[in-house]
Every structure is written in C-alpha cells, then in structure tokens.
C-alpha cells in the first residue's frame, strides 16, 4: 500500500468541486444545493448524487478531519463523475491535455503513490 498524505489528496478536490457545481442546475434547486435528507425533493432529485458529493466535500467541510481512506473514496466518486462527463473525443486521453484528463491522471498517480 502506498503511503498517501492527506495534504496530497485535499488539493485534488478543488477541480471536481467546481466542475460538479458548474454542471448542476443550481438555479433550479430550491435548497441552494444544500442536501436535505428528509426532503422528498432531494431524495428523488436527478442531481442527488452530485449534490450529496458537494455536500460532503464542500469548502466548508473540514477535509483534513477525514481519514485518507475516506478522502480516497470521495475522490473516486469524483473520478467517476468527471470520467462519465468526458466527451467521446477524450478517448485518447493519455495524450489529451484538457483539464479533465490532466486531473484524472493526477488523481491516478497520486492514488498510486507516484505523485
Ligand atoms: Zn481530455
């Protein structure tokens, strides 16, 4: 197991945070993207997954209080999100220099302990 420092993981949250917020239809959310577990509207919302992530990893949340395992898990959710939002021309992503692909590679190498 590579020894990963929280200080390496936390900066990686900036990019998906802004991407996910951008992709969400914040203006349509009656709760200003504050997930409410007891609200029917939140539970059935098509943006529920992204919203939950934001609520777990918001800048207000003290990421440094989380365990490395927890941070890794949340990052992997973000990887899925960024990955599934790539357009098809990213297929050759090893060579792609767009910010999505650069971030994905950065996460990968950090999680592999090669950063
Ligand atoms: Zn790309």
Level of helix content? 40-55%
Bound compounds: zinc ion
Mean pLDDT: 87
> Which ranges are low-confidence, i.e. pLDDT below 50, for 5 or more consecutive residues?
none
Query: Cα distance, first to last residue?
Result: 14 Å
The number of strands is: 0
* Largest sheet composition: none
Q: How large is the count of helical segments?
A: 6
Gyration radius from CA atoms, angstroms: 15 Å
Measured by DSSP, the beta-strand proportion falls in under 5%
Q: Which descriptors apply to this entry?
A:
single chain, 115 residues, mainly alpha, 50% helix, 0% strand, globular, binds zinc ion
Describe the structure.
The chain is mainly α. 50% of the residues lie in helices and 0% in strands. The protein has 6 helices and no strands. It has helices at residues 6-9, 14-23, 40-43, 48-57, 68-84, 99-111. Helix 2 packs across helix 5 (68-84). The two termini are 14 Å apart. Zinc ion (ZN) is lined by residues 90, 93, 96, 98, 100-101.
């Amino acid at each position: 197991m590579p020894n990963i420092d929280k200080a390496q993981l936390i900066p990686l949250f900036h990019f998906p945070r802004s991407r996910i917020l951008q992709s969400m239809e914040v203006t349509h959310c009656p709760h200003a993207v504050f997930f409410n577990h007891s609200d029917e509207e939140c539970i059935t919302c098509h943006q529920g997954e992204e919203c939950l992530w934001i609520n777990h990893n918001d800048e207000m949340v003290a990421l440094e209080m989380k365990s490395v395992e927890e941070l890794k898990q949340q990052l992997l959710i973000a990887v899925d999100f960024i990955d599934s939002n790539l357009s098809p021309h990213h297929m050759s992503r090893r060579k792609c220099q767009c910010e999505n692909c650069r971030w994905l590679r950065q996460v990968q190498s950090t999680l592999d302990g090669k950063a």
